[in-house]
Input
Amino acid sequence: MLVNFTKMHGFGNDFVIIDLITQNPKLHTAHFQRLADRHLGIGCDQVLLVEPPTTINADFSYKIFNADGSEAAQCGNGIRCIAKFVYDSGLVNKRHLLANSKAGDVVCEVHDHNEVMVQLPLRRGSLGNQHHVEQVADLNSIDIVAQGKKIALAAKQPLNVSFMQVIDQYNIKLRVYEHGTGVTLACGTAAAAACMQGQKLKLLADAPIAVQFATGVLYVTVLNSKKIIQQVGATFTGFTGSFRV
Output
């Protein structure tokens, strides 16, 4: 059968989004690996599946699969793109949304000019994915691939590794090596982890932080009292197509 998809990205962190509400293909690990392959497939960092909600008050649920086929608990840029996708495709007819995920329920708001706000729940101080943040003086002096892989392998568990350069108390630069994918141009959960660590170390203000990736800026607010990470940024739709399973 033919399966429709939409290619989207958040600051270069790119996704193949598949609607499993109006389609019902049987997809498994090999499909995710092939779809993510940038030579033999469509090419992406993660494959995102949009499914019916698992709770009565939610609008939809979603799952995240890395390029190697492993499942991730959360994806900040991914859920921003999904929220824009379900709104644009007519799966929902409102801008304020609630989504079920493996890491908890996420509040989403679709704004004008392709901007989306999400509120990611914190559980025991985590968004679901494990992160390690290294503070560096100059990102240009770091071999992200070599250092990221070294730290991730030493952990002996799934781990995303971020390198953070603090510009001032309201701005940081960030580069990320993600488990199951490798270097990505942006990562929402890594941005959250970096901001939380920077604030804990008193390097960053208790205020919205501009996280500068190579291709854009994500605004992150740590709302500790509500156990929420709020993120606001642009989404981009590339193209639509179909593949055969």
